[in-house]
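Figure 6 in text form: structure in, sequence out.
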C-alpha cells in the first residue's frame, strides 16, 4: 500500500531550480519506490505583471534524459496558473524557472511505495484472502447442486422466438 504526501516547491528568481530526489537522501528501501505527480503550477501574488515565466523539467524517459518546458505562466491575466497531470516515477527530477523571476509554486503528490517488510506482510494477507475465496467458491457450487431439479425450467431454442405449446391432445 502506498503512502501519499502533499508536495510543493517554490521557484523564485531567475534560473532558480529545485531537485526532487528522495532516493538520493538515503531513504529506506521501498518496494515500488517513489513517484511524483505534479497537478498545478501557479504564480505567486508578488509576480511582476506581464512577465512571462517558463518552467522546465529535466527527467529520465525510458531511454534517456530530457529537458522540456511544461508550463508558461503570465502574471496579470488568465494564464497565471495551469493545471497539470505529470507523473515522474524515476527520481531525480529537476524543476527550473528558465524565464521570469516568479515566484512560481508547483503543487502535487509524492507517493511512496510500501517498505519491503510491509510487502512481506502483504503477501501473507493476499495468500489468506486467496484461500478464503477458494472456500467460498466451493460452497457456492454446492448450493447450486442442491437446487431441486423439478424447479429447473427446461428451455428450448425456437428460431421464431415463440414459446413451445404443450400438446393437450395426449391428456385424457
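Output sequence:
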Amino acid at each position: 500500500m502506498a503512502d501519499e504526501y502533499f508536495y510543493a516547491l517554490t521557484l523564485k528568481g531567475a534560473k532558480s531550480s529545485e531537485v526532487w530526489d528522495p532516493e538520493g537522501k538515503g531513504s529506506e528501501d521501498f518496494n515500488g519506490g517513489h513517484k511524483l505527480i505534479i497537478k498545478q503550477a501557479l504564480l505567486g501574488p508578488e509576480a511582476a505583471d506581464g512577465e512571462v515565466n517558463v518552467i522546465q523539467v529535466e527527467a529520465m524517459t525510458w531511454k534517456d534524459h530530457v529537458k522540456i518546458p511544461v508550463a508558461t505562466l503570465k502574471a496579470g491575466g488568465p494564464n497565471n496558473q495551469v493545471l497539470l497531470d505529470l507523473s515522474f516515477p524515476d527520481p531525480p527530477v529537476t524543476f527550473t524557472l528558465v524565464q521570469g523571476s516568479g515566484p512560481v509554486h508547483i503543487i502535487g503528490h509524492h507517493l511512496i511505495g510500501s517498505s519491503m517488510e510491509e510487502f512481506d506482510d502483504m503477501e501473507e494477507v493476499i495468500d489468506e484472502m486467496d484461500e478464503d475465496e477458494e472456500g467460498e467458491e466451493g460452497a457456492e457450487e454446492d448450493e447450486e447442486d442442491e437446487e431441486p431439479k423439478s424447479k429447473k425450467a427446461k428451455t428450448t431454442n425456437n428460431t421464431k422466438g415463440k414459446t413451445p405449446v404443450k400438446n393437450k391432445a395426449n391428456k385424457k
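Caption detail: Helices lie at 116-145.
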